Amino acid sequence: MYGEKLVLKNLTELELVDFIVSLGLPKFRGKQIFSWIYRDIKDFDQMNNIPKNIRRKLRENSIIGNIEIEEKFESKVDNTKKYLFLLNDGNIIETVAMEYENRLTVCVSNQVGCRMGCNFCASTVDGLIRNLEAWEILDQIMKVQENLGKRVSNIVMMGSGEPLDNYDNSIRFLKLVNEENGLNIGNRHITLSTCGLVDRIEKLADLQIPINLAISLHSPFDDKRREIMPVANKYKIEDIMGVCRYYIEKTNRRITFEYSLIKDKNDSDKEAARLVELLRGMLCHVNLIPVNPIEERDYEKPKIEYINRFKNYLEKNRIPVTIRNSMGSDIGGACGQLRRKFK
Ligand code: SF4
Known about the structure:
The protein is 35% helix and 20% strand. The protein folds into two domains: 6-63, Orthogonal Bundle (DNA polymerase, domain 1), CATH 1.10.150; 68-342, Alpha-Beta Barrel (TIM Barrel), CATH 3.20.20.70. By secondary structure, it is α/β, with parallel strands linked by helices. The protein contains eleven helices and 14 strands. The strands form three sheets. Strands 3-4-5-6-9-10-11-12-13-14 form a ten-stranded mixed beta sheet. It binds iron/sulfur cluster.
């Protein structure tokens, strides 16, 4: 809802048809209006096959739901674009688009700010401002698509915010983005990244949506993890591993573990060895991400030989692993950096 009005972009096709019928209008108008919404229109008057009186009725009862591009930055070092979007209430969020030969991946924000407090992350420095509605997550994709004139093929829910802390809107977003006559982006092309909210992962597993799940682990030891991520005070690594096994059992999907490598913090052999112990035999993959320094914390990237040594240890022990460098490092590297600079 937006005030008293319904946001049309927040509805599935079926729900939109029901809404149109509830206004005393025929079903087929609902289908027509749904398809207009995915042509990224700004105003009801652009719906030129919908009679004026119906457009007026729509305007009285609903809004389409649009966010606006406030700024766009293009990386000179790779094919990354970052967008700052202005929300209807004046808040700003950031979205990243990464273009590859035949793929366009968009990293969406889920909340304005974040309350999880991960030490290496700029998004959390001012805490959580508010959750995004499902349509505000969806519209980030639609606006990038429109701006670049190219279909988005993959989505990562890895921008500002913790998607499972905004659980209902995240699940609704997954439903919306999957709509056959909408964006029609399949679950297997979507990755949801979480800092490890065990009870919510369990709930998600029970839904059996075949999305890719990524867990921010960052240390295989509870005490070290607590220093990096306050959420570790609530959830133990043992419980995270337990719920990951449950997720794999329910969905048959491989889990990705995100591991930000921080110099002298979590990059030692001891950590690599414990990580191997935890993950041995699990259907998983590890992404090693050399940390992006942020102004507010004094974390440093390990030297390349330490990064390679960590990776080799995992590989030697048959844990699939990739080193991932942050994209768009010249236009506000880690999540939340760009938005904070803009404020
Ligand atoms: S890394 Fe993710 S969960 Fe942690 S503070 Fe940043 S946005 Fe929140």
